[in-house]
Structures are given as C-alpha cells and as structure tokens.
Amino acid sequence: MLIESYNLQVDVADHSTEEFEYEAIAHLPVDISHVLPYLNATLTNGTYYTDGPVFSWRRDNFKIAFWHDRIAVEHIETREQARDIIDELVKLVNETWEKRTEIEPDTKTYENLQPLELYRLLPKTNCKACGESTCFSFALKSAAGLVELGQCLPLYAEDQYEEQRTQLELLLVTKRPLL
Ligand code: SF4
What we know:
TATA-Binding Protein, 3-methyladenine DNA Glycosylase II, Chain A, domain 3, binds iron/sulfur cluster
C-alpha cells in the first residue's frame, strides 16, 4: 500500500464568513507526485498542473487538491466528515496506484468546456428538437456533459451547420465537462 498513514489537520476555513465550514489537510509520509498523472487519466472534473505538480479535482461540493506531500479538501461541514472524506481520498490514491499497469498516465492540462463557447456554434434557432427549450439551455447541459451533441438534430441534418458541427465536435474531444 502506498499511503499507509497520514496526519490529519482540520481548520475552520478563513473565508467562511456566512457559512461555518472546515478545511482538511492530510499530511502524507510518502511522495505521491507519480500518482497524479494516473488520477488525471481516470477522474473527470479534474485538472492536472505540471507546476507543483498538483491535481485539482471537484467531487460533489468538495474542492480537492492532491499535492506531492498532502491532500487538501475545502467546503467540509463537520470534523467527522473531514476524516471520512480524507479516508476515501487516500483509498482512491492507493487503489489508483495499485491499478497503474492498466492505466495510461496523462500529464496534459485540459481546459474546461464553456457554455458560451458552445452556444456560439449552435444553430441558435431554439427549435426544441433536442428536448431543451432553448439552445442556451442545451449549451449549459452540453458543457456539463449531460447531453450528447447528436441530440441537436438540425446540426446533423442541415449542411449549413457542417462547419459549426466540426468545431463543436473538436471542442468536445479537447476540453472537459464543467461541473
Ligand atoms: S435542437 Fe439544436 S437548434 Fe434546436 S433548440 Fe436544441 S440546440 Fe438549439
């Protein structure tokens, strides 16, 4: 097992003026920087930065950062929750490292999909064929990975949208969904 123990630090978040919340840091006895490209390859909603290096990840409401020597989590409601979420993340790192021979590590930094960027390339007719009431609503869901581009029927049925369709398809394979 890579991480066999850690020292847990739990603090009240400085920025929480209206809502009381905690930040937790698990200080690790081992360097996990070599695991971060494997996390980047397997987890959605995350961003890998070579400076650090650090893998930043959103899960539910938690803002998480994996550094070489620590795992930090923000937006925690109770001290008990801090222990639980840190235990889960340590387990995730250990399991990912154990499966490393099955994973192609990835050190790329992906940009997130932006709804406006998608909206600009949609037909903008609000025809509702995709099941959404407006193209902007479709763009919002598309940026979050909740709909497929193929659900926009005119985009694929009408030649006039061919260039836009190509650009949209490129965006969807080079960028990652927003939370
Ligand atoms: S099907 Fe396409 S053009 Fe029609 S509302 Fe949905 S996104 Fe807009």
